[in-house]
Amino acid sequence: MKAxxxxxxxMNAGVDNCVEAGYRGAFxxxxxxxxxxxxxxxxxxxxxxxxxxxxxxxxxxxxGISQRMLTVTLRGLERDGLVHRDVFDTLPPTVANxxxxxxxxxxxxxxxxxxxxxxxxxAVKAARAEYDRRNG
Amino acid sequence: MKAxxxxxxxMNAGVDNCVEAGYRGAFxxxxxxxxxxxxxxxxxxxxxxxxxxxxxxxxxxxxGISQRMLTVTLRGLERDGLVHRDVFDTLPPTVANxxxxxxxxxxxxxxxxxxxxxxxxxAVKAARAEYDRRNG
DNA sequence: TATGCGTGGTTCCCAATAGTAACCACGCTA
DNA sequence: TAGCGTGGTTACTATTGGGAACCACGCATA
Lengths: 136, 136
Fold this sequence. Notes:
The structure is a homodimer.
Chain A: H1 8-11, H2 27-36, H3 39-50, E1 53-54, H4 55-61, H5 67-79, E2 83-88, E3 94-99, H6 101-134
Antiparallel strand pairs in A: 1-3, 2-3
The first copy, chain A, binds a DNA duplex through helix 4 and helix 5.
């Protein structure tokens, strides 16, 4: 609560057209981020950024993911052209999952996000604790 | 399907320790991204990056969001210390929502992601169409 | 007077999605 | 012949996302 009421418009003086980029068109952004923001997709892309890996190896590497969720996740990434799937007809079958060039370009951003998350982890945790203390 | 079976390990020769950063610690990354990846959170942060805005204004600005989802989204962002909420006891009440410094630092990354989404929208759409054509 | 508008929410409820457990076939090995 | 490792699929359930409707308040308009 605050007693003063200097208008919001006043606060915004000169702030406009500061961050124009990235907001036009809303829809595509949302549409893409539905996949990008996905927990497992992020984990899979981060892992595949390190090395080409087959299904079972990914299953062991990505902590906590289930077999089905890995299948679903990889299918989604493949559908979006971010992951390339190479099936070798060996016995037992071998599937090599790797990032496509598009996937690699995204990896850069995801890595940046991961770094941000690690850098601000403490701050976010503190903010949450503080918020929860103040409210129920 | 491919006949050849040059091993995956061979394919990975020298690839390791290329993208080390961003993978250690998995958990915090996932934890943070749960919020970052959220559709509405991203839209709200992008919008608040442009200007401090009150509830109703955001409701109109963020296309397609419902009153409840905006409330939920803003609460989450506030809890994480990304959005600052200023309540003025005017009549009718005025609530000024703005990004905190932490929120601003995240905005940079989100803007980059949004730009990526716009740049690769066509490619992703094409990949999806191609995938759907090949499979059922 | 009552009907509507703008403020910023909350509560109820349902549909979609995330995610688990169990099953499949195949061949090799102990 | 029982188990393991390949890469899945199917059936089911828990959790969440999200819309519609409601709240109080004061001001205006008809």
